[in-house]
User: Which sequence fits this backbone?
């Protein structure tokens, strides 16, 4: 099996360290080889494309140039969207790419047929049946609200990831590991993204709506596939508590942490203790730890 | 010896401003074969035509060339003038020195030169014209109407009342179409069934109408005035001669939970059923797919119950062949599936329904007896949201057109809802309100001013479920405000498309279909009820989204075309069609492959003893449109166009190259 | 502040009147050209506004911005706060019936606002600036200094100060930045100088 080129994203060694570690552990357990792109740089996320369209493409192009493989995997939805957008432009807008190449001066871009995958897709490629077989601790009794956010599913013409209004890829993984994916309507509602810094009130309002919907759907925890979403939904519960006196107490986990738990990976690797809203009481309550 | 007359028109200033008509006249006077060359200010006027007539008589002209506007404008005019004094009209042609010359050029000298050339070439052709007689095709004075909705019903009645036989074919068990499903019609709020059923009954009882329901057209052969149609009468498993419509079988049938098509999935029916109480004919049909006997054997309770022994499980489909002279397509419309937008639930929410489903909820004979109740839990609806343009006017969905009737029926729905639920709230999300018909704008104002319907200008981005309600997330662009409405019921005004199966049927008839799947009329402005195929007409929504008044008008229009066709014993067609030289034809039938009108037939040439000598191609004069494709396909020049023969065309070309 | 004369008070309106000038037409053309999107196809259905998660906070909603672009109202649009509140969630792009990539148009408007010095949302611009400087320095975002820089520059010195120790204790803050900023700096240089 050829290795996937792995793009961790900037928060992988910082605020989303538990995502990176649980990802690595799960992939190791499943025999999925990830090779980190050497010397990778920031994809630019929102700020880059918001101020200069070429900058955003250039940063991704640089990473493509550095990539050891044509298939690139990332766990961050924003990075995923940036890479997908760049590759889409590469395939459909030659003149634009000529401009980008002028800026980046790549040496290893020609003739390559890039494929960009999110970690969720990689697990699907591995196969749900195979995953099920390796589950040692089915997460029975755990109701999980799968939250996809925006950039993973939109715009469908560019990312081609599942149905943009009622996606199922994460739900299917959650079901395969024995948990119950909740039926809820806020799977792809925006969390407010980078406004956590300049306009936090926006994030508080949007995340409150999402968390309330998850709660109304009877979810025990929310599962995410993006570090930005995670930090907005998790960390900002403190601010919601402080400013709006509402205590959701809803743990927000990376789906890889749940996968890891079901696959029997030890807790130390999964980083439950790093999450702001502690998931351990709920997990203990369900007899899962 | 050719004696050609040339008549050059000034067309007021249209030609004379750019072309020196005097020069053209003088140049043509010198052309071999031209014995008369004049110019006049308005050739098409009465004095102008008189000039032509007098010249023909006085100078014994053998051919006439009128240099003027386009033949599309006045060819019939000048031909009539020639015929009036005994010159075969096909010996008269027009050189277009207006649209092809004076209107597109500005340099006088060059334009005049060109005009001279255009007339000269045509003279060379006309010298070789032969007199032709229009082709007379006999007409079978019986009409076929395909589709038993209001369009088909109206057309059938008009033709039948005109004294001719009509066969009305409808694929559903009953006629009535979508109009029968409506509760009330805009803008009068007439009860739809009440105004429709008298016409349905009239159809049933009319001595000139043969009603074939639960039937479909399988094949069509022939040509205008002489069609041969094969109709499949599907087996109802009920003997129509004997059944009285008492309904005992329906009461008895144990399969009661089948989703009713007439109620669009909101109600149930039995396996042996009549689609609705006022059905015409009032004879049940057995749905094989759900009937217990057909599926597993046994049952047959209906048979036992029937007091007239009308049930016949051995009944077979029947294939009927009929000869008709004209066909009217009135196959109507369907709504696109309501799961078109995944952001509106993609079909997951039971309480997000389409317009026709809402009609069934409103209808007194509907699944809820006219009470507006939620399909999901049967609870009362207090807040309803109507969304216009669901699919229509949407480039991203490939439906760029407007479905025309939705603005009006959404308004109607809102008003009817308010009549039933006095303190209920009705919201209509719209982009524009299209209310152009008679009384339509006033109807919309009534909804706003008298009934308290709230119109919000904007589209809906998303619908989702929350706390037992459907949250509708839209916008009012006039105030710039995003709005969220928790509704009990949402009605989507989904786009209209032509009925399923229309493309296959159109192909059988050779009728073109437009890019959106609607039948193409012959000309969008001036020939709205005819198709490109002579003898085939259309009416109603099969041509384009349409409301009932326009449908009825169009149906009568199509009927009138049929009636004028039947009023003659034969129809005349242009003789400028293809003709096969049977001596040289080898019977390869490349021409048949090339012909888009299916006008080439096989003809057997036999000797006096009746032995087959050869099979040659034969052009059916009723179908040929004179396009000339066959003349190109023919490998040994055995087929030629009357009036545009190869000899004539080469003469014209030679004149051009000699210049 | 200058005392408004009585006459000025009578005739003053909050918004400037719309003038359809040559300059206005050029603005529209520039937006269409630079974004590559047919803003002129927008028929103001409002579906973008209806689906925009931050529309509630905007001074002018997305469909209004599209309309103002159609009418060439460059200053009004480029000075709006709305274009900075847009998070690029792509809901508008996904649902537009005229297939206009509205999010892309927003990108273009932001680019133009910065070029012409008309950007009004101090917080968002400061955040973007801090972010881009951060990756030019380190190659990858180094979250601790990003937050510090933003707080200093925006004047919100104590924002999220309460989170600092919590994050540290949970090991969520990286202690050492990466060192491949040079690659990023080269890209910025190639684009014509460090982005400010």
Assistant:
């Amino acid at each position: 099996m050829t290795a996937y080129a792995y793009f961790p994203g900037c928060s992988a060694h910082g605020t989303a360290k538990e995502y990176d570690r649980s990802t690595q552990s799960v992939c190791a357990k499943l025999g999925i080889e990830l090779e980190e792109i050497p010397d990778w740089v920031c994809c630019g996320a929102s700020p880059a494309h918001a101020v200069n369209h070429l900058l955003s493409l250039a940063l991704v192009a640089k990473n493509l140039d550095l990539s050891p493989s044509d298939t690139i995997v990332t766990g961050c939805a924003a990075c995923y969207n940036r890479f997908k957008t760049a590759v889409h432009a590469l395939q459909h807008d030659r003149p634009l790419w000529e401009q980008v190449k002028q800026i980046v001066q790549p040496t290893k871009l020609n003739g390559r047929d890039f494929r960009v995958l999110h970690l969720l897709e990689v697990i699907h490629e591995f196969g749900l049946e195979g995953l099920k077989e390796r589950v040692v601790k089915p997460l029975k009794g755990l109701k999980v609200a799968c939250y996809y956010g925006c950039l993973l599913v939109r715009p469908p013409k560019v990312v081609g990831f599942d149905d943009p209004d009622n996606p199922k890829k994460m739900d299917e993984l959650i079901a395969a590991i024995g948990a119950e994916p909740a039926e809820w309507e806020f799977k792809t509602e925006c969390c407010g993204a980078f406004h956590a810094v300049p306009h936090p009130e926006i994030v508080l309002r949007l995340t409150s709506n999402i968390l309330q919907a998850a709660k109304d759907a009877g979810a025990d925890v929310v599962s995410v596939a993006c570090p930005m979403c995670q930090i907005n939904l998790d960390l900002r519960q403190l601010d919601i508590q402080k400013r709006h006196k509402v205590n959701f107490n809803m743990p927000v986990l990376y789906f890889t942490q749940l996968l890891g738990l079901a696959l029997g990976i030890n807790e130390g690797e999964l980083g439950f203790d790093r999450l702001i809203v502690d998931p351990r009481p709920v997990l203990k309550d369900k007899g899962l730890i | 010896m050719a004696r050609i007359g040339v008549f050059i028109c000034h067309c007021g200033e249209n030609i004379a401003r750019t072309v020196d008509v005097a020069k053209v006249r003088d140049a043509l006077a010198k052309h071999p074969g031209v014995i008369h060359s004049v110019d006049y200010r308005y050739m098409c006027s009465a004095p102008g035509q008189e000039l032509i007539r007098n010249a023909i008589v006085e100078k014994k002209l053998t051919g006439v060339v009128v240099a003027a506007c386009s033949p599309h404008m006045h060819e019939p005019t000048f031909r009539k003038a020639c015929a009036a004094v005994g010159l075969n009209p096909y010996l008269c042609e027009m050189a277009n020195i207006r649209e092809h010359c004076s209107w597109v050029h500005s340099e006088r000298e060059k334009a005049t030169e060109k005009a001279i050339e255009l007339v000269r070439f045509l003279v060379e052709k006309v010298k070789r014209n032969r007199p032709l007689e229009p082709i007379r095709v006999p007409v079978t004075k019986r009409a076929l109407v395909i589709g038993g909705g209001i369009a088909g019903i109206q057309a059938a009645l008009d033709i039948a009342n005109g004294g001719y036989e009509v066969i009305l074919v409808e694929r559903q068990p009953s006629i009535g179409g979508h109009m029968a499903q409506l509760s009330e019609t805009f803008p009068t709020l007439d009860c739809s069934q009440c105004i429709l059923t008298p016409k349905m009954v009239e159809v049933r009882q009319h001595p000139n109408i043969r009603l074939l329901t639960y039937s479909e057209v399988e094949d069509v052969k022939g040509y205008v005035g002489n069609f041969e149609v094969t109709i499949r009468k599907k087996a109802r498993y009920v003997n129509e001669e004997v059944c009285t419509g008492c309904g005992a079988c329906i009461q008895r049938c144990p399969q009661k939970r089948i989703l009713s098509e007439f109620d669009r999935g909101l109600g149930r029916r039995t396996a042996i059923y009549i689609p609705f109480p006022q059905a015409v004919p009032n004879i049940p049909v057995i749905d094989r797919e759900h009937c217990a006997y057909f599926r597993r054997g046994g049952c047959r309770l209906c048979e036992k119950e029937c007091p007239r022994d009308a049930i016949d499980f051995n009944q077979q489909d029947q294939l009927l062949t009929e000869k008709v002279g004209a066909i009217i397509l009135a196959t109507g419309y369907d709504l696109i599936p309501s799961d078109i937008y995944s952001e509106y639930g993609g079909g997951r929410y039971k309480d997000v329904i389409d317009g026709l489903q809402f009609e069934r909820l409103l209808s007194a004979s509907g699944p809820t007896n006219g009470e507006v109740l939620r399909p999901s839990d049967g609870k009362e609806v207090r807040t309803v949201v109507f969304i216009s343009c669901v699919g229509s006017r949407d480039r991203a969905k490939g439906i760029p057109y407007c479905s025309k009737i939705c603005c009006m029926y959404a308004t109607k729905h809102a008003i009817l809802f308010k009549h039933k639920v006095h303190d209920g709230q009705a919201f209509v999300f719209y982009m524009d309100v299209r209310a152009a018909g008679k009384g339509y704008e006033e109807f919309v104002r009534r909804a706003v001013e008298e009934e308290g319907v709230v119109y919000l200008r904007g589209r809906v981005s998303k619908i989702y479920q929350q706390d037992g309600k459907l949250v509708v997330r839209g916008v009012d662009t006039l105030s710039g405000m995003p709005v969220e409405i928790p509704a009990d019921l949402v009605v989507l005004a989904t786009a209209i498309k032509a009925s399923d199966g229309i493309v296959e049927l159109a192909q059988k008839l050779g009728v073109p279909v437009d890019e959106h799947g609607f039948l193409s009329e012959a000309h969008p402005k001036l020939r709205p009820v005819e198709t490109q195929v002579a003898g085939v007409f259309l009416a109603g929504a099969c041509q384009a989204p349409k409301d009932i008044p326009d449908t009825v008008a169009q149906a009568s229009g199509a009927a009138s075309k049929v009636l004028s066709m039947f009023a003659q014993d034969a129809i005349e067609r242009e003789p400028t069609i293809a003709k096969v030289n049977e001596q040289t034809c080898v019977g390869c039938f490349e021409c048949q492959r090339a012909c888009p009108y299916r006008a080439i037939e096989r003809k057997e040439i036999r000797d006096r003893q009746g032995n087959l000598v050869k099979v040659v191609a034969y052009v059916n004069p009723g179908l040929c449109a004179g396009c000339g494709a066959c003349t190109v396909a023919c490998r040994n020049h055995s087929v030629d166009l009357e009036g545009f023969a190869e000899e004539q065309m080469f003469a014209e070309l030679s004149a051009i190259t000699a210049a | 502040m200058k005392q408004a004369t009585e006459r000025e008070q009578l005739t003053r309106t909050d918004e400037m009147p719309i003038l359809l000038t040559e300059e206005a037409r050029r603005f529209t053309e520039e937006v269409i050209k630079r974004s590559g999107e047919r803003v002129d196809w927008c028929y103001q259905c409002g579906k973008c506004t209806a689906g925009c998660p931050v529309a509630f906070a905007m001074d002018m909603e997305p469909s209004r911005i599209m309309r103002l672009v159609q009418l060439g109202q460059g200053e009004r649009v480029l000075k709006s706060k709305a274009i900075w509140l847009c998070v690029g969630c792509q809901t508008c792009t996904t649902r537009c019936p005229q297939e206009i990539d509205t999010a892309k148009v927003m990108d273009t408007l932001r680019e133009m606002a910065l070029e012409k010095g008309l950007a009004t949302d101090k917080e968002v611009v400061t955040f973007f600036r801090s972010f881009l400087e951060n990756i030019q320095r380190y190659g990858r975002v180094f979250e601790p200094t990003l937050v510090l820089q933003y707080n200093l520059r925006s004047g919100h010195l104590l924002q999220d100060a309460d989170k600092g120790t919590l994050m540290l204790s949970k090991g969520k803050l990286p202690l050492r930045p990466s060192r491949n900023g040079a690659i990023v700096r080269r890209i910025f240089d190639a684009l014509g100088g460090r982005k400010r």
Notes: The CA atoms of residues 291 and 359 of chain B lie 28 Å apart. The first strand of chain B starts at residue 4 and ends at 9.
